[in-house]
């Protein structure tokens, strides 16, 4: 009796555990960890610079994906929130001024300025959100675009914090007396600055990705997606539109603030025009190419838009003159501009969408006899 | 007083350029509900081709202008035909981003073709041409900008009001399905909208280039200042784009002219963001603009 019941269960759609899939997952994880370990041990400092920038860009892409990918609110203003985070970090963590012309800095610890960067950006987001989120579609896009320009004006003029047009230095992450821009020992192993930053950024990205992933699987995340897919429908189902949009806006600003602080601190010297519309559009390109509403998509997109040109430069495959022609930056911009168009036309899910499509195809072939094709045909003898 | 009039005059001329750029947005939006973020780059390509036509290929100015218009119109038509037509019915986010994709491609193509250093702007006038009355210099360039804007607006008004295709465009803007049902060829309407918008973009670009003497690849950002203009005027209104453009132009020039008096309070460069501040204010109190259609959201 119990045997037949179990059999019936498997037939009516309750998925039995599939050991093969789990094994392949573990395998993928194992290979991933191995690659990271090999990279970590053998890579040169140049490679660490490239990968570390990509890791930070991935955090910012994740931030934009929360707002634009999951919640469907178009934003061209991510660079503004990154700047807010960066200048909060600079104000709190920067070295105290030695002359009255220097920008301010309180010299506080890394453990204060990094969360503060996120929190202040989130607060600014909460302040702007109620006004901006009354608008939708391209109106919101234009207002966030205006935010970038207004931000640049403010940063140019708030010399005390931003250093004005000349820019200012940003604090380096430091654990107590161990700043990450010099060689330190961790458990008796000497680590280069690249390795230390890799660990730091990797851990922050991992935390951010886990957090975003879990939020998106929660009630709030489902509300975000409902708002994106159909506002009226979501409202009818009992989603509070304002709360959902604000939630996405604040979470996005928080992550963008942290990413901005890390960006500025890793470059160590930034002028206000760094936080431009171009930067914001690069992140938009990243999430479209990588995959909208996907965590892996954010990371892949960041690698493509921010990592690839540096890799091309590193191998000096193309001339690096700035007067035109086919430089790596130009080539990359051309490719991601074209890819935005191609992906939106043919595969709106981005690279991740392509991967999923391939997986679905593979599954169709390998599990053909088990799952696909509906119920087995029943032979009924009609002869009397 | 002469200073004020000078500024106001420069503002009106500047505003006419914004109006020309804004008209491009408005016409495409009216026909297909698409905001074309690549408008600024169409303008950029147009200005570069006109400049190259005059200085490198030694064409007469008018011929170069026609060449520039032809190239941008072809780009606009191809993009509409090959890309945008497949995007009908897709989310606003996707359509917006695909025009940003075109924007990136065009700008990069310009940088690759001409380099990122500024090149001189082609101009049929010299700086000093024009006339001076009561201490105010009415530059030939500014007068021409205003005159061309007036002529173009009159032509557009005539086109929309009295021609067959103008009527078809208005009908399509009002209700696509109903327009299809009465036998309007919507494809022609879309193509027409993109063609007109691209041509106007080039004309606006050439005047903008003359105004700033030189062009570089960031030139297309000027189109972003047309956003406040069209939102102020009402995004789907042709006369709104013109009025909005002139208001924004005059306010920007006046702020630029008088901001040195308050520089120690407001800092430098406030005139660069006054259009955006006005826009945000308008969006808060009257989101459909001065002349726009008040849209009813149905639940």
Oligomeric state of this protein: heterodimer
Helix content estimate of chain A:
55-70%
Arrangement of strands in the largest sheet of chain A? 1-6
Instruction: Tell me the strand percentage band of chain A.
Output: under 5%
Termini separation of chain A: 32 Å
Mean pLDDT of chain A: 82
Question: How does this structure look, described?
Answer:
The complex is a heterodimer of chains A (384) and B (299). With 384 residues, chain A is mainly alpha-helical. Chain A is built from 15 helices and six strands. In chain A, the strands form three sheets. Chain A has a two-stranded antiparallel sheet. In chain A, helix 3 runs antiparallel to helix 13, helix 4 packs antiparallel against helix 5 and helix 12 packs across helix 14. Chain B starts with a helix and ends in a 14-residue tail after the last helix. In chain B, 50% of the residues are buried. The longest helix of chain B has 31 residues. Chain B is mainly alpha-helical and 299 residues long. Chain B has twelve helices and four strands, in the order H-H-H-H-E-E-E-H-H-H-H-E-H-H-H-H. At the A-B interface, helix 6, helix 12 and helix 14 of A face helix 4, helix 9 and helix 12 of B.
Which helices and strands, and how do they pair?
The complex is a heterodimer of chains A (384) and B (299).
Chain A: H1 2-11, H2 19-42, H3 45-70, H4 78-93, H5 110-132, H6 138-157, H7 159-162, E1 168-169, E2 174-175, E3 178-179, E4 184-186, E5 189-191, H8 193-216, H9 219-229, H10 231-236, H11 241-267, E6 269-270, H12 277-290, H13 295-314, H14 328-346, H15 350-366
Antiparallel strand pairs in A: 1-6, 2-3, 4-5
Chain B: H1 2-32, H2 39-55, H3 61-83, H4 92-114, E1 119-120, E2 130-133, E3 136-139, H5 140-162, H6 164-174, H7 176-181, H8 186-212, E4 214-215, H9 222-233, H10 238-258, H11 263-266, H12 274-285
Antiparallel strand pairs in B: 1-4, 2-3
Helix pairs in contact in B: 1-5, 1-6, 1-8, 1-9, 1-10, 2-3, 2-4, 2-8, 3-8, 5-6, 6-8, 9-10, 9-12
């Amino acid at each position: 009796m119990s045997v037949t019941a179990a059999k019936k269960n498997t037939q009516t759609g309750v998925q039995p555990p599939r050991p093969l899939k789990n094994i392949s997952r573990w395998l993928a994880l194992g290979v991933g960890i191995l690659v990271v370990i090999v990279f970590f041990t053998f890579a040169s400092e140049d490679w660490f610079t490239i990968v570390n920038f990509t890791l930070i860009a991935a955090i910012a892409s994740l931030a934009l994906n929360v707002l634009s990918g999951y919640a469907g609110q178009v934003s061209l203003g991510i660079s503004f929130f990154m700047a807010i985070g960066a200048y909060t970090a600079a104000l709190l963590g920067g070295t105290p001024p030695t002359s009255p012309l220097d920008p301010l800095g309180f010299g506080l610890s890394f453990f204060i300025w990094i969360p503060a960067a996120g929190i202040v950006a989130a607060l600014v987001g909460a302040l702007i959100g109620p006004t901006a989120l009354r608008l939708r579609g391209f109106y919101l896009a234009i207002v966030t675009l205006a935010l970038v320009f207004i931000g640049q004006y403010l940063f140019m003029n708030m010399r005390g914090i931003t250093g004005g047009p000349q820019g200012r230095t940003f604090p380096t992450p430091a654990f107590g007396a161990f700043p990450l821009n010099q060689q330190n020992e961790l458990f008796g192993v000497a680590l280069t600055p690249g390795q230390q930053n890799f660990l730091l950024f990797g851990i922050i990205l991992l935390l951010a990705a886990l957090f975003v992933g879990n939020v998106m699987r929660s009630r709030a995340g489902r509300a975000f997606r409902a708002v994106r897919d159909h506002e009226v429908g979501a409202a009818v189902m009992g989603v509070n539109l304002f709360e959902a949009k604000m939630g996405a806006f604040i979470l996005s600003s928080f992550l963008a603030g942290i990413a901005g602080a890390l960006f500025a601190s890793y470059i160590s010297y930034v002028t206000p025009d760094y936080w431009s519309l171009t930067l914001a559009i690069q992140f938009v390109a990243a999430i479209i190419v990588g995959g909208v509403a996907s965590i892996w998509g954010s990371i892949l997109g960041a690698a493509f838009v921010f990592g690839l040109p540096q890799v091309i430069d590193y191998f000096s495959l193309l001339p690096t003159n700035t007067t035109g022609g086919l430089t790596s930056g130009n080539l990359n911009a051309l490719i991601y501009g074209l890819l935005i168009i191609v992906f939106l036309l043919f595969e709106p899910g981005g690279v991740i969408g392509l991967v999923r499509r391939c997986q679905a195809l593979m599954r169709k072939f390998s599990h053909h006899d088990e799952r696909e094709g509906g119920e087995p045909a029943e032979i009924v003898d009609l002869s009397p | 007083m002469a200073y004020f009039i000078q500024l106001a005059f420069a503002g009106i001329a500047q505003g006419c350029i914004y109006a020309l750029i804004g008209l491009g947005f408005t016409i495409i939006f009216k026909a297909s509900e698409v905001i074309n973020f690549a408008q600024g780059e169409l303008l950029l390509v147009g200005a570069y081709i006109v400049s190259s036509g005059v200085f490198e290929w030694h064409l007469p100015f008018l011929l170069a202008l026609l060449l520039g218009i032809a190239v941008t119109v072809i780009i606009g038509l191809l993009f509409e035909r090959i890309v945008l037509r497949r995007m009908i019915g897709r989310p606003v986010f996707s359509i917006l981003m695909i025009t940003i994709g075109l924007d990136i491609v065009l700008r990069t193509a310009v940088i690759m073709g001409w380099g990122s250093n500024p090149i001189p702007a082609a101009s049929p006038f010299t700086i000093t041409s024009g006339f001076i009355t009561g201490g105010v210099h009415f530059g030939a360039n500014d007068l021409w900008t205003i005159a061309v804007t007036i002529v173009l607006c009159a032509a557009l008004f005539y086109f929309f009001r009295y021609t067959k295709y103008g009527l078809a465009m208005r009908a399509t803007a009002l209700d696509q399905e109903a327009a299809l049902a009465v036998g309007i060829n919507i494809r022609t309407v879309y193509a027409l909208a993109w063609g007109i918008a691209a041509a106007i973009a080039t004309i606006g670009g050439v005047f903008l280039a003359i105004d700033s003497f030189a062009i570089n690849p960031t030139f297309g950002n000027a189109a972003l200042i047309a956003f406040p203009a069209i939102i102020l005027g009402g995004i789907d209104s042709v006369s709104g784009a013109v009025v909005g453009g002139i208001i924004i132009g005059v306010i920007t020039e006046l702020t630029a002219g008088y901001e040195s008096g308050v520089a120690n309070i407001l800092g430098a460069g406030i005139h660069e963001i006054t259009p955006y501040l006005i826009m945000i204010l308008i969006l808060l109190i009257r989101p459909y603009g001065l002349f726009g259609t008040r849209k009813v959201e149905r639940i």
